[in-house]
Design brief:
The structure holds two protein chains of two kinds. Chain A contains 23 helices and 44 strands. Chain A is of the alpha+beta class. In chain A, a hairpin with a 2-residue loop joins strand 9 and strand 10. Chain B has two domains: about 90 residues; about 240 residues, BirA Bifunctional Protein, domain 2 (2-Layer Sandwich), CATH 3.30.930. The chains are: A alpha+beta, B alpha+beta.
């Protein structure tokens, strides 16, 4: 919202407050000034040199001796002599031959910087003295465009007739425009007068009530049924008040310069005097108005007087709005209708047919009030955006309706030559009851933490037009003014007091109270530890989008297979794009897309993500606070690219494979105290290579899968042709298991006696998992076999078809003595017997 | 030539020869030639029998002196040669120490994780624990219970992603802010009517066009303190403390009045620009201030909805963005780099 300072100054004196300080104080009090635009003064885009650009008076217009389309004007600029300037301005040309004119203009001397009136856009140029067809011209009368006041090069500007001659133009037309960003649904701050009220309270200055008192000046009174029109509010829940004022015999034309400039500075384009006045009063007081062409308003029946009926729309009812769109309404939208049908969407936009035209003579001026939530519902459902709708949607004081209607009528009388009917119509079924709030000045202290004297509190409330009645020093009754319908609680009063008093004056304190019971957030601590471990293992953490492309789910399954999920997907009702239209049920799509995007620039990626997946399990139950959505944590990893980077000596450049990921995972499991507890079995999963996939469980609970991605899954994610190994595990299950393992942990004995090392090669069926053999050895050798490390695998003629040889390095060690050959012999025999029996293994002799 | 003279001659000869032994091999040859079993000095000792008995002790003594002297000279020479040889070996083993080391793959934490941890640590010092709340949220928790009824103009402050739900079912959405966690934390703690100090981090979602300055997914961190006498100056002090610990000592704080439906009074908290220090620059849009949090005293309606009687309890709440601080600190011009996960960006942290 843009507020010209010159306009603000009409209601509260801000002349001696530096504009920057004014902006700062308003910002601190909650009316954020985002920008200050300077017009004419130093700092403006086009500063007007106060010596060279001044006010002046055109006294006479004479012919140019040598050019038919130009005239010579005689100008009094306040100096000892008059200046003759050459011009082609149409309105002056029309006065050729006249004298004794007394027209006030903006006058610029050679050397002044102006915009080129004939150039496209704003091009600055310096005014030079030139001979125009033999006549020397040292100065010129300026247009709005040349001064930077408008973007079209129209006629020259004429200043009010009481403008002094020879003063810098800045004194008359210079200005600052404050551009506000007002947070919150505050209709009362969406206008110049509302800001003036705040300025008055902040700076302790009087507020001029002139614009509110037009009804008194007009001698306006009201009745429910005025002469000119029949008024009915059929649905007062949607329209608490409707006033109608008649202004007869207006002549439509341009509004005066001062009004045009204010509208422009506030960001609106001048149209004609009637429309400009309704906009002007809306900007001034915050009340949207609507001017009907009275002649277009139809009676209910022939012969009766025109009628305005405010009612709910019939479902499906239609009307074309001012913007030319044909609108269809539902039964909760509020329409303004006349005897013949809809003429406007109440509080939102007028109808196309009853608009004011150049030929309009009589105006029926609507100043009404509409229920803000319904206005918002209507604008949202119809997708209409309008100044009126936006203001009513932020709540407008219903007491303003008649005040603003009278103000506009007064201006129409002054500026459009209208005659105002002295009796206006006012239907007001929704007049709000006075709203008192019980308040105690000590509340400010207990909420704010700072003592503000009761008298200062009273001053602030009064300045904001709250009325304070003392029932005792601790017992105030504060009557909320009609314009502050948002104030309902004592804390609302505290906020008003605090912000006007100034938060910059508050001390800084820390909470001086007992601490709540202290708790660990165990799941979070565990999660963060997981991140640290995985980073330590050389993986980069990513955080990807929770919203994914639903088509990525089938992409995760190789053809002919389908993924199963633990719950239903959560699609969006409104999405930015199909790629972000469903909550993820797997971390893999984000991980694989990240891998793909990065492999365009990097040869190797090693990624992980720890995050939540989301799926629906049940119907939401708001009463219990239950969303019905499960959001468990997962951990996912992906590796692709060469095992080692290039170096100046040969490195291992083969592709990262299953065993690279498994190595990382084993180190990770070791950290979680789960290395010995994890069960590895061959897995079958739609995302993975059927022969290179493991399913991992701990104590029978599934942790997840790990493997080389199926090549067709890689292709579906547009990954380069190379192995990608990945996993997605249930982090909740993993951490539950780790917590249990950590709880059952005990320190193993550390032996001081020498170990015995020997190798043992076993021939088993080629399909026998190595882990089974290793576990069998360790089991059989308990407790003296402390290690069985697989160091060689052989398949070939020496062991026979369908067989393989697994060679283990065994370590025997006793906590109690040095083992001798016979001890080792006994153990070895036991191990061999067990593996023969359990796995059909044979010892491979060298 | 007497035996004595012969001994002295051998001695002189041996000393001269030792000077000439330049490496280990030469040294060992010298030793064999003079002090070995068949060495000339050794052979001299055996000649003692040829001497008259009365000369034998003197000769024996001299022989021993010579042998000892030569052994010592040998040892010294051996040490010198060893050192010289080692020096030569080391010199020939010199490498170009500017060559790169063997590459070790490095992992990196995401920038957001790093920022969150920093903030957790700061608030932990002030007694705040981390409390987590869901991403997919009930409409009631995201809006109504926070004093934002349907169609209320305050809802305009958040462009919302709505979840497809069957008609007639309570509506779900992606939380637009971390504030619904306030209700969840209060309702959990209200059963014991405990005071509360929690921070609530999490992903938030807004139905907004994605640009360099705004993302549809971002992180926020909410803070909530509920107690029997918490005041706005406590909030201001806590924010100041945070700013000093997060942005560095000597930070200034500016508190502006603002509007949020779930706080009353509502404020916005700024700190002097981390780049220009308050003088005005492009980062702070020439205001000298950067907004760090929206905050306020918990609205009585919200306290009530959370199960705390506003007549007895008061509290403050604040909410801050997580990406903005690091964007400012590291001059990151595009928020899409965060969750687009370009490793060339993430590996810089």
């Amino acid at each position: 919202m843009r507020v010209p300072l010159s306009w603000l100054n009409d209601y509260v004196d801000v002349k001696n407050i530096p504009v920057q300080e004014l902006a700062n104080r308003l910002t601190l009090a909650g009316m954020e000034v985002e920008a200050i635009e300077t017009i004419g003064y130093p700092g403006a885009e086009l500063p007007w040199d106060p010596k060279l650009i001044t006010t002046a008076e055109v006294l006479s217009v004479g012919p140019h001796p040598d050019a038919d389309r130009l005239v010579l004007v005689e100008v009094d600029y306040g100096g000892p002599e008059h200046e003759i300037a050459v011009t082609g301005a149409p309105s002056l040309y029309a006065l050729k031959g006249q004298s004794d004119l007394h027209l006030k203009v903006a006058f610029a001397w050679e050397g002044s910087l102006l915009y080129d009136g004939h150039a496209e856009g704003f091009v600055q140029r310096k005014l030079k003295a030139t001979k125009v067809r033999g006549v020397l011209s040292r100065a010129m009368v300026c247009s709005q465009k040349e001064l930077g006041l408008a973007d079209v090069h129209g006629d020259i500007i004429y200043l009010p007739s009481d403008t002094p001659v020879g003063v810098p133009l800045t004194e008359v037309l210079g200005d600052y425009v404050l551009d506000f960003e007002i947070k919150g649904p505050f209709g009362h701050l969406q206008c110049v007068y509302g800001i003036a009220r705040e300025v008055a309270a902040i700076f302790g200055r009087p507020l001029k009530r002139t614009p509110l008192e037009a009804a008194i000046r007009l001698g306006l009174t009201t009745v429910e049924q005025p002469e000119a029109v029949e008024l009915e509010i059929a649905d007062p829940d949607l329209c608490p008040r409707y006033t109608a004022t008649m202004i007869r015999g207006v002549s439509i034309g341009p509004s005066p310069l001062w009004m045009q400039l204010r509208l422009q500075r506030a960001g609106m384009r001048p149209i004609n005097n009637i429309v400009d006045i309704t906009n002007y009063v809306m900007l001034e007081l915050g009340q949207p108005l609507h001017a009907f062409d009275y002649a277009q308003i139809r009676p209910r029946s022939a012969g009766s007087k025109p009628a305005i009926i405010v009612r709910r729309a019939l479902p499906g009812e239609q009307m074309a709005t001012l913007d030319g769109e044909l609108r269809t309404f539902d039964g909760d939208m509020c329409l303004i209708t006349d005897g013949g049908g809809p003429v406007g969407v109440g509080g939102v936009m007028g109808g196309l047919d009853s608009e004011v035209k150049d030929t309009t003579r009589d105006i029926l001026l609507e100043a009404a009030n509409f229920f803000f939530l319904n206005i918002r519902r209507t604008t949202q459902l119809l997708k209409i955006s309008s100044e009126a709708g936006s203001r009513f949607g932020k709540r407008v004081d219903s007491e303003l309706a008649l005040i603003a209607g009278a103000r506009a009528a007064e201006l129409m009388r002054e500026l459009a030559g209208g005659v105002v009917d002295s009796i206006a119509g006012d239907r007001y079924p929704g007049k709000p009851a006075p709203f008192p709030v019980a308040y105690c000045p000590a509340m400010a202290d207990s909420i704010l933490g700072v003592i503000i004297p009761a008298e200062e509190q009273r001053r602030i409330l009064t300045a904001l037009e709250f009325s304070v009645r003392d029932n005792g020093p601790e017992d105030w009754e504060v009557l909320v003014p009609s314009y502050r319908l948002d104030v309902r609680h004592p804390v609302d009063l505290v906020e008003e007091i605090g912000r006007i008093y100034g938060y910059d004056r508050f001390p800084h304190t820390l909470i001086d109270e007992p601490l709540p019971p202290l708790r660990h957030n165990v799941p979070l601590e565990e999660e963060e530890r997981v991140r640290d471990w995985l980073v330590g293992l050389g993986l980069d953490e990513i955080i990807s989008y929770s919203l994914i492309d639903p088509a990525d789910e089938p992409r995760l399954a190789s053809p002919g297979t389908a993924l199963t999920f633990a719950g239903e997907a959560i699609p969006l009702r409104n999405s930015l794009s199909p790629e972000r239209s469903q909550m993820r049920r797997s971390l893999l799509p984000g991980l694989l897309r990240t891998a793909r995007n990065n492999l365009r620039f990097l040869e190797r990626v090693a990624l992980f993500e720890v995050g939540r997946v989301h799926y629906r399990l049940a119907t939401p139950n708001p009463a219990a606070g239950e969303t019905g959505v499960a959001e468990p944590r997962r951990v996912a990893m992906a590796l692709a690219g060469p095992r080692q980077g290039r170096w100046f000596e040969a490195t291992d450049r083969s592709a990262l494979d299953y065993f690279d990921l498994k190595g990382i995972v084993e180190a990770f499991l070791e950290r979680l105290a789960l290395l010995d507890k994890a069960q590895w079995e061959r897995g079958a999963h739609p995302s993975f290579h059927p022969g290179r996939c493991a399913r991992v469980t701990v104590e029978g609970r599934e942790i997840g899968y790990l493997g080389e991605l199926h090549p067709l899954v890689c292709e579906a994610f547009d990954l380069p042709v190379q192995p990608v190994v990945a996993l997605e595990w249930d982090l909740e299950a993993l951490l539950d298991a780790a917590r249990a393992a950590e709880g059952g942990k005990h320190v193993g004995m550390i032996s001081a006696y020498p170990p015995v090392h020997e190798d043992l090669a076993l021939i088993v069926d080629a399909g026998t998992p190595a882990l089974d053999v290793q576990r069998a050895i360790l089991q059989a050798g308990l407790p003296l076999v402390t290690r069985a490390l697989l160091f060689d695998i052989y398949q070939g003629p020496q062991v026979g078809e369908g067989k393989k040889s697994l060679a283990f390095a065994l370590t025997y060690q006793s906590p109690g003595k040095a083992l001798d050959e016979s001890d080792v012999e006994k153990l070895r025999m036991r191990i061999i017997k067990v593996v023969e029996k359990q796995l059909g293994a044979k010892v491979r002799r060298a | 030539m007497t035996l004595f003279e012969a001994l002295e001659q051998v001695y002189n000869e041996a000393q001269a020869a030792l000077e000439l032994a330049g490496d280990s091999a030469g040294l060992e040859a010298w030793y064999a030639a003079y002090l070995g079993r068949k060495g000339t000095v050794t052979l001299q000792t055996r000649a003692v029998g040829q001497l008259p008995k009365d000369e034998r002790p003197a000769f024996g003594q001299r022989v021993n002196e010579v042998k000892q002297a030569l052994e010592e000279a040998y040892a010294a020479r051996a040490e010198a040669i060893k050192q010289a040889e080692m020096l030569r070996t080391l010199e020939s083993g010199a490498i170009d120490i500017t060559l790169p080391g063997r590459p070790v793959p490095q992992g990196h934490l995401h920038l957001t994780t790093r920022t969150l941890r920093q903030i957790y640590d700061i608030f932990a010092m002030m007694g705040f624990e981390v409390f987590e709340a869901p991403d997919v949220e009930l409409e009631a928790y995201n809006f109504d219970l926070l004093n934002i009824p349907d169609y209320h103009p305050a809802r305009d402050m958040w462009d919302t992603f709505w979840v497809q739900t069957p008609p007639g079912e309570p509506r779900l959405l992606l939380r637009t802010h971390t504030s619904p966690g306030q209700i969840r934390a209060m309702r959990e703690r209200a059963t014991h009517q405990e005071p509360i100090r929690v921070i609530l981090p999490g992903k938030c979602y807004r139905y907004e066009q994605i640009t360099a300055r705004s993302e549809h997914q971002f992180y926020q961190l909410e803070g909530l303190a509920v107690g029997r006498g918490i005041t706005l100056t406590d909030l201001i002090g806590t924010m100041h403390q945070f700013a000093e610990l997060f942005y560095g000592t000597g930070r200034k704080i500016r508190v502006r009045s603002s509007y949020f439906p779930f706080t009353e009074p509502s404020v916005e908290v700024d700190t002097n620009c981390i780049l220009c220090g308050g003088g005005g620059c492009g980062v702070c849009k020439y205001t000298g201030w950067l907004e760090i949090a929206g905050a306020g005293m918990v609205h009585p309606v919200v306290l009530q909805n959370g199960g705390y009687d506003p007549a007895e309890w008061s509290g403050f709440a604040f909410g801050m963005g997580i990406e903005r601080p690091s964007m400012m600190k590291y001059d990151v011009s595009d928020i899409r780099l965060y969750y687009g996960n370009d490793l060339r960006f993430l590996r810089q942290f």
